[in-house]
Amino acid sequence: MVGNVPVGGGADVSVQTMTTTRTWDVDATVEQIRELTIAGCDIIRIACPTGKDADAVPLIVEQSPIPVITDIHFQPSYIFKSIEAGVAGVRVNPGNIRRLNDQLPEIVAAAKSNSVPMRIGVNAGSLDPQILAKHGNIPTSEALVEAALKEAAEFEKLNFFDFAISVKHHDPKTTIKAYELLSEKIDCPLHLGVTEAGPKLQGSIKSAVTFGILLEQGIGDTIRVSLSDEPAEEVRVGLEILRSLGLRQRDFEIISCPTCGRKEADVIELAKLVETTLAERPDIKGSGIKVAVMGCIVNGPGEAREADIGVAGGAGKGQIFKKGEVVETVASSEIAPALLRHIDELLTAYLSPNR
Amino acid sequence: MVGNVPVGGGADVSVQTMTTTRTWDVDATVEQIRELTIAGCDIIRIACPTGKDADAVPLIVEQSPIPVITDIHFQPSYIFKSIEAGVAGVRVNPGNIRRLNDQLPEIVAAAKSNSVPMRIGVNAGSLDPQILAKHGNIPTSEALVEAALKEAAEFEKLNFFDFAISVKHHDPKTTIKAYELLSEKIDCPLHLGVTEAGPKLQGSIKSAVTFGILLEQGIGDTIRVSLSDEPAEEVRVGLEILRSLGLRQRDFEIISCPTCGRKEADVIELAKLVETTLAERPDIKGSGIKVAVMGCIVNGPGEAREADIGVAGGAGKGQIFKKGEVVETVASSEIAPALLRHIDELLTAYLSPNR
């Protein structure tokens, strides 16, 4: 359990991100956590680079609507401060906390008495120099796994088993192989991530490919998409990955064609309008409504038979259909308002207490 | 072979998209094909909904820098017109060309004598009604595969084996299962696609997850990402998927951190600037240069050891490093120009005839 969020043991795969505010700026940090909670974030991680940041943790934990994990590098003392502050978890990077293991008995004692789980977060770029040297100074999948298992063994020696592991690299293939190896060697929750994945497009695709391949094999219990972009974007991408594999219910789904030389309706604009409109409806949560936006009759009502509601463009007009049956034909200029009206009716019916 | 592009048999996985211009508008269509070629598209498909469109095909084929495939629904006569026009391939949808099989001997004869390959393109929404009925009116993975294999058998009966197959659905899990089943049953090139995948984010993630899982198993020879967005975006996402799995060389890679409460440099802006600058350099093709943009010293030069060049933010300054070694320290305001200058030097060296 990370706070009230179960991780591993068959629980739903949870979505995490990190705040980008200064942690010592409590108001800004809490405000960002609130926004990320609305975006669908399940667990939030905050960095603690300085004592000023560590001092802010209790106030953030108190006000955060979701469980807070602190991310500790270099300074073991912040681990104790975090646990005292009531965090839901602590991430440690064994590669860059000097003499971490010398203090492990005290850390484990504190974590145990406060029921705080730990994450052993291994990153390709901050591997233990000895392990790195052993692998030809290349952070291979095997090197990442060796570093993680070595640290896990230290925790286990102290009878502490309440930990998750991550082994992140910026290359999807290296990352995939690392988690595959790791899942064969140890049975603990795994936190998936591709580190330094890059800007939005490159990072989203790297993460989707990596997590897709791993989750399909049943590997991975909690995920964090890393993008050089807003953390809310990381949450959106993470949720989309889970939804793609049926691991998270969609609030809504848009079945829209890519458009081609046949298109008779402005599908791109219409799909965006529907997406924006639906995303802004707080009452849509869990409805799973499927809306089709199809450019032509070739792949129109038929192709979108499974949609709850949809529109197919025709010459100068649009056919509104429900479950593949045409219910109304409107002029091109009326497509958008007619579609939105039908969607509204559908959602109202969905939300009716008598449904 | 689709024109000069090999598909299947261990060839590189190729990237396709469709034009969104009116096909009869030859100038606009050729202009869009040129733009898509620059974006990295290997094969282009054009719709032929009317006779006017079919008449334009010869002129488009003549001027297109990449192989042209026509997409034929409903009208078998356009298949013959396309083949006469010298297209590199024809896609037929067996679900909506009536009496396709009655005319198959003539189609196959024309395709054979012009060495034109065919794609049997099955879509969930336009399945043969008999097959659909057999599967409880649900376009299951099994129904998609049955429709594809039934049509493939018709081609094979006529001693025609120069075809690829696609079995597209809007749901990744159904699509993945369909291609997995198909690859066990038949040994021909497979064209991967998730149909009506939706707007950019949803569609990109659906495609990345689906193609990632299939390509990792060695399933898939050519891909088309379907988005309700510009076709150039489909090409960009398709290429990123291939690059993520090491199936396509990167022109450049950005290793940039997601930023957190530790950041000392504006990573998002800097990463975007580097991305835009590199994408605009025509001489970068194939260089594979790795540029790191790191927000802080925790994961800076060390984390980005594998980068050719990079920057790590510090308090009021930035460290420029090459292969993990700091080569210059500059004031915050000088980070962007200094990084771009070093990148330029590196590319100039890369491009030097004496390297």
Ordered list of secondary-structure elements with their pairings:
The structure is a homodimer of 355-residue chains.
Chain A (H helix, E strand, L loop, with lengths): L13 E5 L7 H14 L3 E5 L3 H13 L4 E5 L4 H8 L4 E4 L11 H10 L4 E6 L5 H6 L6 H17 L5 E6 L3 H14 L5 E2 L7 H17 L5 E3 L6 H14 L7 E5 L10 H13 L9 E6 L14 E6 L2 E6 L2 E7 L3 H17 L4
Parallel strand pairs in A: 1-2, 1-8, 2-3, 3-4, 4-5, 5-6, 7-8, 9-10, 10-11
Antiparallel strand pairs in A: 11-12, 12-13
Helix pairs in contact in A: 1-2, 2-3, 6-7, 7-8, 8-9
- What is the oligomer described by this structure? homodimer
* Total number of strands of chain A: 13
Question: In whole angstroms, how far apart are the ends of chain A?
Answer: 35 Å
The side-by-side strand order for the widest beta sheet of chain A comes to 6-5-4-3-2-1-8-7
CATH class categorisation of the largest domain in chain A: Alpha Beta
> How large a portion of the residues of chain A is in β-strands, by DSSP E?
15-25%
Question: If you consult CATH, what is the topology of the largest domain in chain A?
Answer: TIM Barrel
Query: Which parts of chain A are unreliable, with pLDDT below 50 for 5 consecutive residues or more?
Result: none
